[in-house]
């Protein structure tokens, strides 16, 4: 999923920490791989044409589903699509069957039309993102869209006049990423309904995970995709119904598991990478190559195409990985790096299958986009991931880190299918946690977690809707960094062995389900046999953070010729138990004390043969949820006013350089 680079920020923070007297050994890559709802409105789809249906791509032949279903297969898609590279266009047909998973009659189906996020600068995605995602900007005149040209029932009844664009999150009439189709008759619980759609996608220039760049195409979120209908109990919902959201600047995706049978027609010189596996060899018909793919127990389908891919494949199996074909689709610039991609993929499959349950699919495809297609890089889809684009013929370990992160998403997003609209941390934070662990185990690269904690300048609840963080920076700070630090903090409190058990149990219990944060909390409580409600209220459902400070130090001589010191420690933030305080004396001796954190303030009275030189709260930087370390250290010989002035001046200087930080 989306990743961001913070090398410049870390460098500035490292300077700050050194100047403040906090010495941290920076090890590892600092890269970190994304109001009430407005009333639903209904707008007539002005762009919907009711003329003759376009000729669909060759229909997908029927495929027999596997007998053992791993998921509740709510949807079945049969898709056929033709790529016209010169026109930058997809022409496609879709037959989709939805099985009602609830009990109440349903009269409307809802579909996500994600390419419409790029239809104009008035869409919700473009307004919120400012036309920027990660380091990529929307190319000039790079707009794209999706147009439904025909929608019919299985009996051939047209539903074009029954369609309405809806904007449940913000009421923005310029947003057409979600559409409602009113059915001729309701669908009862357990029954199914089948619709036949024809549509066109005008591919945007590559930006925000999809589009075209030259002759490279990334087809992500390229088909009308059903929203998720949540029965009672799913993610704790009390009343069944559709989970409906538009495509936002920060949000990603949420879909139900199902079956996909997909025919893809491309020019004869193109190679296609796709979710799932090919059911037959590609056929050449009238100068075009026809691929046929099949996947089950997945909740999305993506594909990429290019005439320039250099293809490599290796079979891989371990005790935890029954057998998988790892397929590489390399940009030519990275043709000599294929072994590194294979090694990273094998390390990830081995470790994650051991930690979180066996990888259940027979294929894993890795697509390396060209330099100009970087907007498609660093993203995950079921059984298919994209690496960062190739921009040089060598690469640092961000190559491995990206591959590992995106394969981690095969678990936390792919199988453990959380709602990325509403609880993105369950995907990004969990994957980042797994990524850090494997990078250290496999490559000896340990992330500097205390320094990363200092990046979290605006802590917010981890269960906010993705678009309510107020911008990409706050979203990244919390969903990628802070959420991971919460997991590491829980690990610190319960121990590595117990945390391993928690993560493993959670991943295995909820694979092929849609869990919520409350489900993870239950796993923690079951493993530790105690309530974690207060902790989750502060640090998960709330945006709290501890803020320890050495408020004052006074040193005086006593009548015995020794010294007596009074050191006052406070916590200006949220309650956090058990913090260490280190005292350093003029003769080089150090003394450690532990404060239970109660009451928000305490004073240590010490007698010593040498005067106290300094005091530091949390000298080992173990409290990862504290993001303000400037006041953790104080020298006894500096007047408080001087220390405050020095601290403020340095903070202002750093903020001026970075332009973003508020300590």
UniProtKB/TrEMBL annotation:
Its cofactor is Zn(2+). Residues 55-64 have a biased composition (Pro residues). Zn(2+) binds at residues 405, 409, 428. Residues 37-69 are annotated as: Disordered. The active site is at 406 (proton acceptor), 480 (proton donor). Binds 1 zinc ion per subunit. Keywords: Metal-binding, Zinc. Residues 345-537 form the Peptidase M1 membrane alanine aminopeptidase domain. GO terms for molecular function: hydrolase activity, hydrolyzing O-glycosyl compounds; metallopeptidase activity; polysaccharide binding; zinc ion binding. This is EnpEP protein. It comes from Paenibacillus durus (Paenibacillus azotofixans).
């Amino acid at each position: 999923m989306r990743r961001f680079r913070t090398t410049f920020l870390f460098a500035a923070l490292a300077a700050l920490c050194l100047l403040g007297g906090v010495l941290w050994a920076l090890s590892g890559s600092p890269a970190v791989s994304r109001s009430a709802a407005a009333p639903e409105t209904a707008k007539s789809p002005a762009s919907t044409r009711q003329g003759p249906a376009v000729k669909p791509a060759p229909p997908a032949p029927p495929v027999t589903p596997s007998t053992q279903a791993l998921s509740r297969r709510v949807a079945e898609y049969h898709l056929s699509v033709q790529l016209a590279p010169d026109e930058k266009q997809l022409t496609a047909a879709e037959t989709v069957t939805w099985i009602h998973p609830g009990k109440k009659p349903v009269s409307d189906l809802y579909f996500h039309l994600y390419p419409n996020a790029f239809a104009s600068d008035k869409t919700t995605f473009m307004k919120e993102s400012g036309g920027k995602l990660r380091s990529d900007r929307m190319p000039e005149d790079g707009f794209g869209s999706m147009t439904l040209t025909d929608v019919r029932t299985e009996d051939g009844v047209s539903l074009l006049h029954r369609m309405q664009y809806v904007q449940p999150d913000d009421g923005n009439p310029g947003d057409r990423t979600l559409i409602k189709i009113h059915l001729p008759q309701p669908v009862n619980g357990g029954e199914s309904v089948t619709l036949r759609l024809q549509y066109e996608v005008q591919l945007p220039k590559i930006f925000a995970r999809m589009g075209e760049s030259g002759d490279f195409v990334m087809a992500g979120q390229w088909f009308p995709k059903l929203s998720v209908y949540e029965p009672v109990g799913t993610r704790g919902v009390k009343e069944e119904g559709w989970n409906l959201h538009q495509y936002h600047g920060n949000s990603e995706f949420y879909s139900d598991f199902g079956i996909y049978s997909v025919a893809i027609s491309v020019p004869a010189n193109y190679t296609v990478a796709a979710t799932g596996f090919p059911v037959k060899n590609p056929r050449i018909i009238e100068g075009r190559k026809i691929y046929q793919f099949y996947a089950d127990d997945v909740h999305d389908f993506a594909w990429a195409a290019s005439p320039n891919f250099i293809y490599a494949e290796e079979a891989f199996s371990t005790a935890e990985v029954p057998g998988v074909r790892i397929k590489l689709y390399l940009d030519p610039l990275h043709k000599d790096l294929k072994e590194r991609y294979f090694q990273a993929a094998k390390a990830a499959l081995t470790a994650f299958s051991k930690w979180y349950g066996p990888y259940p699919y027979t294929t894993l495809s890795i697509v390396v986009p060209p330099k100009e297609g970087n907007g498609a890089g660093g993203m995950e889809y079921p059984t298919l991931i994209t690496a960062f684009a190739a921009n040089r013929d060598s690469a640092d370990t961000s190559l491995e880190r990206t591959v590992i992160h995106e394969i981690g998403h095969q678990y936390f997003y792919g199988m453990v299918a959380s709602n990325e609209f509403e609880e993105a941390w369950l995907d990004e934070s969990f994957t980042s946690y797994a990524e850090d662990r494997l990078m250290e185990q496999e490559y000896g690269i340990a992330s500097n977690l205390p320094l990363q904690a200092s990046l979290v300048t605006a802590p917010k609840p981890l269960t906010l809707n993705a678009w309510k963080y107020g911008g990409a920076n706050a979203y990244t700070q919390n969903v990628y960094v802070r959420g991971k630090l919460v997991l590491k903090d829980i690990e610190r409190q319960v121990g590595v062995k117990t945390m391993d058990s928690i993560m493993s149990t959670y991943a295995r219990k909820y694979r092929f389900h849609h869990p919520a944060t409350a489900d993870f909390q239950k796993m923690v409580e079951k493993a530790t046999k105690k309530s974690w409600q207060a902790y989750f209220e502060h640090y998960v459902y709330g945006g709290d953070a501890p803020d320890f400070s050495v408020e004052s130090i006074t040193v005086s001589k006593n009548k015995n010729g020794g010294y007596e010191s009074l050191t006052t420690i406070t916590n200006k933030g949220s309650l956090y138990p058990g913090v260490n305080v280190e005292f350093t004396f003029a003769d080089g001796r150090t003394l450690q004390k532990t404060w239970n954190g109660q009451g928000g303030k305490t004073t240590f009275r010490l007698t010593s043969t040498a005067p106290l030189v300094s005091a530091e709260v949390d000298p080992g930087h173990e409290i990862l949820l504290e993001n303000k370390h400037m006041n953790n250290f104080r020298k006894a010989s500096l007047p408080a006013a001087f220390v405050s002035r020095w601290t403020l001046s340095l903070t202002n200087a750093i903020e001026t350089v970075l332009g973003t930080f508020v300590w």
